[in-house]
Every structure is written in C-alpha cells, then in structure tokens.
Write a structure and sequence with these properties.
By secondary structure, the chain is of the alpha/beta class. The chain has nine helices and eleven strands. Helix 6 packs across helix 7. The protein starts with 5 loop residues before the first strand and ends in a 5-residue tail after the last helix. The structure holds glutamic acid.
Length: 286
C-alpha cells in the first residue's frame, strides 16, 4: 500500500492570518462561538491578523439579517478582527475564474443525478469508497446523453474528476488523516458555487496561515487540498480541527439541549464574560 498522492504536513503558520468563517443561517450556537474563540486566540497568540469571512454563497439558506447578529455575537464574546469582514457573495468572479481553470484542464464534468439516484447507486458496495461517495454515474456520458438530460429539463451540477486520488494531511489536533476522494461538486445545479470551491479559493487568496474549525469539517480538508493543488494555490500552513461541543447526552449540540446560544444564556441570567470563560475553560484540549 503506497502513501497518498498528495500529503500536506503541519507547518508553522508564522504570522499569517487566522480566520473564522460563519455561514449566516441562524444564530451562532455556543459550539460555534467556542470554535471562533479558539481560532481567534490562536491567531492572536501568534500576533497574526484575524479575519472574518461571511460564507453567504448558499443563496437558499443565507439570510442577510443573520450577518449582523452573528458579528454582534462574536463581539459580545470578546472577539475582534482586522478589516471589514469579507463576503463570499461578493467574490463570484474569483470562483468563476477557478471553475474556468478547472474546465480548461479538463477536470470538470456535468452531473445530472438527483440525490435519490446517488443514494441508490451508491448503496451498491464499491470497495474503498465510503458510503455516500459519488459512484461516477455521469463521469463518462456522451454528448448525446448530456443533450438528452438537458432536454429533459435537468440542470447539471459540475463535478471534478478527483476520482480515486488519495490525499492526506497532518492535522494539528487530530493527527494524520487520509482520504480517497470521490468526484465532488464544485458548482451546484442551482448555479451556486460549492463550499469546497469557495473556501479553497478564499483561504489561499486571503493568505490564511491556519484554519481552525470544527471537527465536523475534517473530511472536507482533503478535497480542499486537492482542489488548491489543481488550481496552483498555496494551502494554509496548518489545519486545526477542534472537537465539537456536545450536549449532556454526548450528542452534537442542538436545540433540545436547552440554552445553546449566547442570547439564551444571557436571558437565563448569565453574562457574556462568564460564558466566554466557560467556553475557553471547556476547550483546554486545543
Ligand atoms: N462556513 C462553515 C460553517 O459555518 C465553516 C467553513 C470553514 O471554516 O471552513 O460551518
């Protein structure tokens, strides 16, 4: 068994910026705030800039009203940042240029599959691909196959030909991670740019040195490293995926766990400084 085709070591980010990149789809919960605090603290300890990036490319789920609410929550918990927050919704040109480059390299193809079709096709066992991996249904369609599907009114998503690439990295917290990539989506069939594309372009263009984010995103990093490599971009020096905050029952934090936002904790008589201390205290592991 050989090692990965691409491996990213854990390097010293020096004084290059850190970032927090919330999606404005609701209030930040305490787990988000804890991750933000860890990202902020790590950057400030390095005497590096700290940037906020509003990840509002998902046009169906992002709401303008949450942007200011989230920024206010970050301020309240004691986080400051440098410059104006960057908005992904204003960076479509950059994402389009990345898509054009992938296209020019012959790395993209149109995918007409629905979620249900992918689930069905992927339920057949296929070796080392994990459940939910794209089985490659549209990978080798002919031009007439594609014309037929377009005529049936199905808008295509764009996927990259990553199929089978093995990518590894050394996470600063979680250690060595390796993943075999499937052909993932870089542009959705509603026209929105996909998270992995936008985040890869932005982290490189913003010169991010360290990515600190929740461990739920650990799996996305190999995709981002592969994309960055194909796009000739410099990846962040370090990735630190921090454990998710859990409820009393050991499950991922959710509404049923009671007071999970700063606002709710304050309504219950706590104050922002106390919550901040609790969050930092509960994050000793990092
Ligand atoms: N926008 C993502 C989220 O709110 C975070 C992306 C990232 O940190 O790379 O879950």
């Amino acid at each position: 068994m050989g090692g990965p085709d691409l491996f990213h070591p854990d390097r010293d980010p020096g004084q290059s910026p850190g970032r927090y990149a919330p999606s404005p789809t609701g209030r930040l919960h305490l787990g988000n705030l804890r991750t933000a605090l860890l990202a902020w603290r790590s950057a400030r300890e390095r005497e590096a800039a700290f940037l906020i990036r509003i990840e509002d490319i998902d046009s169906g789920r992002s709401r303008e009203e949450w942007v200011e609410v989230q920024l206010q929550e970050l301020r309240q918990i004691g986080i400051d940042w440098d410059g104006e927050p960057v908005r992904q919704s204003q960076r479509h040109e950059l994402y389009r240029a990345a898509i054009d480059r992938l296209e020019a390299e012959g790395l993209l193809y149109e995918c007409f599959c629905t979620r249900a079709e992918i689930r069905e096709a992927a339920s057949a066992p296929h070796g080392e691909f994990p459940e939910g991996a794209y089985p490659g249904t549209c990978r080798d369609l002919t031009e007439s196959d594609r014309a037929e599907r377009r005529a049936a009114g199905r808008p295509p998503a764009l996927r990259v030909r990553a199929n089978g690439s093995k990518v590894g990295f050394e996470d600063h917290i979680c250690g060595r991670i390796e993943k075999t990539l499937d052909d993932f989506v870089v542009r959705r069939n509603d026209g929105d740019f996909a998270y992995n594309l936008a985040v890869t372009v932005d982290d490189a263009k913003q010169g991010i040195g360290e990515v600190v984010r929740g461990a739920d995103l650990l799996d996305t990093t190999p995709r981002q490293l592969w994309l960055g490599d194909r796009l000739g971009l410099t990846a962040p020096a370090r990735f630190s995926h921090v454990p998710l905050m859990l409820g009393d029952d050991g499950e991922r934090l959710a509404k049923r766990h009671g007071a999970i936002t700063l606002e709710q904790r304050i309504e219950q008589g706590s104050d922002a400084e106390t919550v901040r201390r609790e969050l930092i205290g509960s994050a000793r592991m990092a």
